């Protein structure tokens, strides 16, 4: 073979779009500050701290959020199946509020911080679970009451059926 | 990618609530709220006077991050009670807003391609710091006020440095998104609705309006506020703080029946050391060292001041009526007519602030006392018997209990 094959024209490497220079500049400033503080944040047990920061985001986005979203979807599906989709808020609202209180005050409600709390502050630590249950009962009770009142008003306002 | 069973597909996300208006309203609330949290947090850091002495400084490596430190004032005397009450109570009340905001933008976590440009890739890394850092700050704060010290290290450096990492990401996020958020909120009535990747392409029929969903978020904030805010007041108001630590009842009745940060037993105070025979206050200054018994102190001119206890954990008491010897009179006793800084040491065996430094302006204030009485009775052991410091506007932990030694003019 005598002919020399022409060197194949290499396809140009696709250029990575850079994006807005202002955005890049702002991000660079932010990373500089975050890096400065981050080195200090990680000065102790760096692995555990990094795990907490990244873990907080992952635990929220991939565990907590899917869990409550799935619970909500199941709730809506159940009400839809019963043909009462518009009633879902009477369960959703008290459940969400009660769950929120449990999430925020979990250490005291579950009693996991109770021992230290009691000995440090001379305050009782065993009332939190009871109070959370009572608040939950009041939330669901209030919601049920509202539901019954609205249902009665709706039945009264309905024009009498033709016979 | 178009498989709607995968979260990377826009069709996976069905809620009809998601959209630019909903996200923008929550974002603007957080912009205001988190700015207040950051400022009050920095204020609280300054209130400890970390630049005054190594004993006050939980973050000796702070470097430039302490650039703004200033002499913490003693007036108004309720200053720290206000700023720290706002910091913690507002932080707790913002939790539902934070959760709702994260929920409203979660489809973007799974967007493909992961990055459209270099700037976009960097912004997504920054978002990890924003979300991770933000949740880290909220979590460490919420755990610390419940005394559940499960986080990896001491609260002060974690929460302080974490705040700066979070705020760095928060600033750039606010700078990039606020203009659009303001636009979205103003354009609420625009039809047809502007295009947005946040809106579901195949939404479920709604079970609640966007407005209704905002009411639910606001209701969550109000519920947390209502069950927390009372811990900044004594008496019936405190009883309204049903789930918050230091809410509910007072620890016992009588003159000493107000909130305690650390009991004598918890701090490891041996009653044998606080008895009249054993206890002496050692005061050191320019003219040497004086040792005073409680009886000696009671002979000196006694003064009164009505001051609250305000803790970094966000709870505080109403004003209590303290009676004792002025700190500046004790400084004069050892040769300082113009009071200098003072190092206060407790009988406490452990605890980060068993030694604490007060600045000259705090010593000089006529309301600053070495208190011997509270509300007309001797201090109880849990409130620092035989003697405790009380300084206007200072964080609770700098009001040292079970004081054993005062060293004026030398903080080492």
TrEMBL record, chain B:
<keyword id="KW-1133">Transmembrane helix</keyword>
<dbReference type="Pfam" id="PF00174">
    <property type="entry name" value="Oxidored_molyb"/>
</dbReference>
<keyword id="KW-0472">Membrane</keyword>
<feature type="transmembrane region" description="Helical">
    <location>
        <begin position="158"/>
        <end position="176"/>
    </location>
</feature>
<feature type="compositionally biased region" description="Basic and acidic residues">
    <location>
        <begin position="192"/>
        <end position="202"/>
    </location>
</feature>
<feature type="transmembrane region" description="Helical">
    <location>
        <begin position="21"/>
        <end position="48"/>
    </location>
</feature>
<feature type="domain" description="Oxidoreductase molybdopterin-binding">
    <location>
        <begin position="276"/>
        <end position="409"/>
    </location>
</feature>
<feature type="transmembrane region" description="Helical">
    <location>
        <begin position="212"/>
        <end position="230"/>
    </location>
</feature>
<keyword id="KW-0812">Transmembrane</keyword>
<protein>
    <submittedName>
        <fullName>Membrane protein</fullName>
    </submittedName>
</protein>
<feature type="transmembrane region" description="Helical">
    <location>
        <begin position="127"/>
        <end position="146"/>
    </location>
</feature>
<dbReference type="InterPro" id="IPR000572">
    <property type="entry name" value="OxRdtase_Mopterin-bd_dom"/>
</dbReference>
<feature type="region of interest" description="Disordered">
    <location>
        <begin position="187"/>
        <end position="210"/>
    </location>
</feature>
<feature type="transmembrane region" description="Helical">
    <location>
        <begin position="85"/>
        <end position="106"/>
    </location>
</feature>
<dbReference type="InterPro" id="IPR036374">
    <property type="entry name" value="OxRdtase_Mopterin-bd_sf"/>
</dbReference>
């Amino acid at each position: 073979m005598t002919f020399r094959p022409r060197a194949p024209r290499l396809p140009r490497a696709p250029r990575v779009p850079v994006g807005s220079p202002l955005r890049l500049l702002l991000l660079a400033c932010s990373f500089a500050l975050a890096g400065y503080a981050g080195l200090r944040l990680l000065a102790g047990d760096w692995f555990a701290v990094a795990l907490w920061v990244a873990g907080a985001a992952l635990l929220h986005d991939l565990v907590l959020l899917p869990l409550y979203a799935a619970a909500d979807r199941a709730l809506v599906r159940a009400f839809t199946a019963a043909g009462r989709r518009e009633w879902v808020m009477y369960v959703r609202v008290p459940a969400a509020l009660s769950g929120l209180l449990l999430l925020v005050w979990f250490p005291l409600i579950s009693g996991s911080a109770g021992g230290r709390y009691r000995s440090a502050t001379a305050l009782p630590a065993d009332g939190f679970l009871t109070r959370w249950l009572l608040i939950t009962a009041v939330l669901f009770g209030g919601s049920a009451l509202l539901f019954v009142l609205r249902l009665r008003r709706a039945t009264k306002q309905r024009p009498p059926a033709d016979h | 990618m178009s498989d709607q069973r995968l979260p990377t597909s826009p069709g996976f996300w069905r809620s009809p609530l998601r959209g630019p208006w909903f996200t923008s309203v929550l974002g603007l609330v957080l912009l205001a709220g988190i700015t207040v949290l950051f400022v009050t947090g920095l204020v609280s850091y300054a209130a400890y006077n970390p630049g005054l002495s190594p004993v006050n400084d939980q973050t000796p490596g702070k470097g430039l991050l302490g650039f703004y430190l200033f002499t913490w004032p003693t007036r108004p005397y309720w200053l720290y009670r206000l700023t720290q009450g706002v910091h913690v109570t507002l932080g707790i009340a913002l939790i539902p807003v934070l959760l709702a905001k994260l929920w409203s933008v979660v489809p973007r976590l799974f967007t493909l391609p992961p990055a459209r440009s270099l700037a976009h890739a960097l912004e997504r890394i920054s978002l990890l710091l924003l979300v991770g850092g933000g949740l880290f700050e909220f979590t460490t704060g919420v755990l610390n006020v419940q005394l559940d010290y499960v986080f990896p290290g001491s609260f002060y450096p974690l929460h302080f440095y974490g705040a700066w990492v979070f705020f760095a990401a928060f600033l750039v996020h606010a700078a990039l998104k606020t203009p659009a958020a303001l636009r979205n909120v103003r354009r609420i009535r625009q039809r047809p609705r502007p295009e947005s990747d946040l809106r579901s392409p195949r939404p479920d029929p709604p079970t609640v309006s966007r407005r209704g969903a905002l009411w639910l978020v606001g209701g969550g904030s109000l519920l947390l506020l209502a069950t927390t805010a009372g811990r900044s007041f004594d008496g019936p108001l405190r009883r309204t703080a049903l789930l918050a630590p230091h809410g509910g009842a007072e620890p016992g009745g009588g003159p000493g029946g107000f909130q305690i940060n650390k009991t004598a037993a918890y701090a490891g105070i041996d009653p044998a050391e606080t008895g009249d025979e054993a206890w002496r206050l050692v005061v050191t200054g320019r003219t040497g060292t004086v040792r005073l018994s409680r009886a000696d102190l009671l002979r000196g001119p006694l003064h009164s001041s009505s001051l609250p206890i305000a803790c970094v954990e966000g709870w505080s008491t109403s004003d209590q009526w303290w009676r004792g010897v002025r700190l500046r009179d004790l400084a004069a006793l050892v040769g300082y007519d113009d009071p200098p800084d003072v190092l206060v040491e407790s009988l406490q065996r452990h605890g980060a602030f068993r030694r604490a430094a007060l600045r000259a302006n705090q010593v000089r204030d006529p309301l600053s006392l070495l208190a011997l009485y509270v509300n007309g009775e001797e201090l109880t052991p849990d409130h620092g018997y035989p003697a405790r410091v009380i300084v206007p506007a200072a964080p609770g932990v700098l009001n040292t209990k079970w004081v054993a030694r005062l060293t004026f003019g030398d903080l080492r």
